[in-house]
Amino acid sequence: MNVFLSADMEGTCGIAVWPETERSTAMDYAPYQKQMTREVAAACRGALAGGADAVLVKDAHDSARNIDPAALPRKVRIHRGWTGDLLSMMTGLDKEPFDAVFFTGYHAWVTCDGNPLSHTMNLRSNRVTLNGQPCSEFLINAYTAGYYGVPVALITGDQALCESAKALIPAITTVPVNQGRGGGVTSIHPDEAVERIEAAAKEALAKAKDCQVTIPEHFRMEVEFIKHAMAYSKSFYPGARLLNSKTVAFDTNDWYEMLRFCHFVLSDG
Q1: Residue 33: CATH number of its domain
Q2: Whose CA is closest to 162, among 152, 151, 172, 150?
Q3: Alpha carbon distance, N-terminus to C-terminus of the chain
Q4: 3-state class of 28 per DSSP?
Q5: CA 215, 220, 224, 228 torsion: positive or negative?
Q6: Could you report the average pLDDT of every consecutive run of 10 residues in the chain (269 residues)?
Q7: Is residue 82 domain-resident?
Q8: Which of 114, 166, 232, 243 lies 20 to 30 Å from 151 when distance is taken between CA atoms?
């Protein structure tokens, strides 16, 4: 059994401000880099205890050089850095068979009040919707898992995102570690987060077959940018159109084509 784990950081236990997620602010960043690594390692240990033979971790935050590989179990491989392919935070999912996808440290979508660092792929947009619903990075990556036929079994992060994940995949195992309010965060103890994540990962693997993602027949994404000039520029993506001075829309029946749109219009990578 092979598990793919995509690890973000803004949903790591206790994180409340941007400097805690940025390598350039070492004093703030170091303890949360360590906690991110601990949470990823816990999910890996749980997966292995639950019957996984191997885990591939995609470090999927910012520089993609956040996790300490030496702190992970020996059966774990890790992909660091950005290849530039369309799968982005899910790089590697298409290269070999996987039986389950895990997400750790994920965060709520742009404008959601469940995380003071809520955003979707970049900090240039006011609103991102997919088929009329608020679009998170989790939603994009869950559909990518569904596109390749891999169930999404576990998510850890802020409570708002965990609740939205349950609405999409009722059988998914969730570990909410933070609850945002305004510019602050209430979190559980970091050690408690690690213990819960390890136990949940083991449990999640047993239920993975019930966590298939239903793929819609049609996709429509709308991106409202903060600056009208950015919207105008991105509206020249083939098939995209400008709905108003700040909003670009794109429609397709093929999820891979939506990933291509995200890569060139929404992603910072």
Answers
A1: 3.40.50.10780
A2: 172
A3: 31
A4: helix
A5: positive
A6: 98 98 96 98 98 98 97 97 97 97 98 97 96 98 98 98 98 98 97 98 97 97 98 97 98 98 85
A7: yes
A8: 114
